[in-house]
Specification:
By secondary structure, the protein is α+β, with helices and mostly antiparallel strands. It has two helices and two strands; from the N terminus they run E-H-E-H. A two-stranded parallel sheet has the order 1-2. The two termini are about 15 Å apart.
Length: about 70
């Protein structure tokens, strides 16, 4: 069974060093499936919005990454 690894880059800058490293990892270690997880559309965390009235971008993120991947 192939491992699935999500790569999260905290910087939104297109040519950030973290993004360069994340893009290079799959080339160096090829015994896993990698998927880039984009945080660019998510707002900063706000506990007040974490009570069922979250933004659409948060709902989409949770539905895809948290619930449909199980």
């Amino acid at each position: 069974m192939t491992k699935k690894i999500g790569l999260i880059v905290g910087s939104l800058r297109e040519n950030s060093f973290n993004r360069m490293i994340a893009n290079t990892i799959p080339e160096l270690v090829d015994n896993a499936d990698y998927e880039h997880i984009s945080l660019g559309e998510l707002p900063l965390y706000n506990a007040d919005l974490d009570r069922g009235n979250e933004l659409e971008s948060v709902q989409l993120y949770r539905n895809y990454w948290c619930y449909s991947r199980i």
